[in-house]
UniProtKB/TrEMBL annotation:
Its EC number is 3.1.26.5. Belongs to the eukaryotic/archaeal RNase P protein component 4 family. GO terms for cellular component: cytoplasm; ribonuclease P complex. This is Ribonuclease P protein component 4. Its cofactor is Zn(2+). It comes from Halobellus salinus. Binds 1 zinc ion per subunit. It is found in: Cytoplasm. The gene is rnp4. One of its GO terms (biological process) is tRNA 5'-leader removal. Pfam families: Rpr2. Zn(2+) binds at residues 87, 90, 113, 116.
Length: 126
């Protein structure tokens, strides 16, 4: 009889198998070239967005700068989505309605950083 008692052993081993299968599935979903650094950048993006929502623009800047450093060190380009949502001039995380004003123009999107006033333009897609 094992630690959990005879009746529970099959359940426990089933749970362990389920976890293993799920981990393998998650690993398989990560595109080639993605790895831990990319996941850390994703996490930093979440933190920057949350800090901005709480009005802490400086803390959000620290997350943005850290994410940029990780990207440079590991030679991975920050996902376009992240680049577009951080200000090149002052590193503020650009959250529409909080730190950014977004305007659709013909052929491009103009994103104005409300922290420093810089405007970045990106080609409009879709
Ligand atoms: Zn700015």
């Amino acid at each position: 009889m094992g630690f959990f008692g005879a009746g529970l052993e099959p359940v426990v081993s089933h749970l362990a198998d389920t976890t293993r299968v799920r981990n393998a599935f998650d690993a398989a979903r990560i595109p080639l070239g993605m790895g831990i650094p990319a996941e850390r950048i994703d996490r930093l993006q979440d933190l920057a967005r949350e800090a901005t929502a709480e009005g802490d623009i400086d803390r959000a800047r620290e997350y943005v700068r850290l994410a940029r450093r990780i990207g440079e060190r590991h030679r991975i380009s920050l996902q376009r989505r992240f680049r577009r949502f951080s200000c090149d001039d002052c590193d503020a995380y650009l959250r529409p309605g909080a730190t950014a004003r977004v305007r659709l123009r013909s052929g491009h999107v103009a994103i104005r950083c409300l922290a420093c006033g810089a405007t970045a333009r990106y080609p409009y897609e879709g």
